[in-house]
Amino acid sequence: MELRDVQYLLSATDPARLAPCAAEVTFLGRSNVGKSTLLNAVCGKAVAQVSSTPGRTRALNVFALGTDRRLVDVPGYGFALGARAERALWGPMIEGYLRGRESLRMAFVLIDAQVGPTKLDLQMLEWLKAEGIAWRAVATKADRVGGSRAAARRREAALAAGLAPERLAWVSAKNGRGIAELRAETAALLGL
Ligand SMILES: Nc1nc2c(ncn2[C@@H]2O[C@H](COP(=O)(O)OP(=O)(O)OP(=O)(O)O)[C@@H](O)[C@H]2O)c(=O)[nH]1
Ligand SMILES: [Mg+2]
What we know:
alpha/beta, Rossmann fold, seven-stranded mixed beta sheet, 6 helices, binds guanosine-5'-triphosphate, binds magnesium ion
């Protein structure tokens, strides 16, 4: 079994509908940060739907590797469909899923490389720490940060998230930077 063997399994808005499994890795981040694109890049296969319209992914989209391993594409937080959605931050669906999900090996928290962590991103990191959920910060769309500015931008973004620069993965689905490392990490987490 390889990441390339990934297949779409189901979409659910009720996390209680997700059956237990042996191991899973999940992709979190604000709307449009590149979660679905990164999942596809890591797998080397276009399984998750990508769109230029923010808020495209509205349910927990679950992808299977064999019978017992999963990747989960989570709806973006911070995309307000209305006042109520805005208040809800990431809402009960995401919280309900992340809490007490025994098989969850890692939550990749995606942060826009150019923008750095937003207030919501920092809240998500704090929340994950408080819940004792394993997380890893991943800066996406690194191709948009010019070569000469990249090192400084990475330091700044890492510092804002309270991390050493090397602990902030720096990736681009567009030019492939950092994808091989993230792929190896994901495969190891899933025990592939
Ligand atoms: N330049 C560049 N653009 C990217 C990269 N990754 C994603 N994008 C673009 O960013 C936009 C959003 O990508 P998605 O993968 O749909 O983002 P998402 O986080 O899944 O968005 P939601 O499902 O709406 O929360 C698309 O237009 C992608 O083509 C990248 O590495 N570099
Ligand atoms: Mg998406």
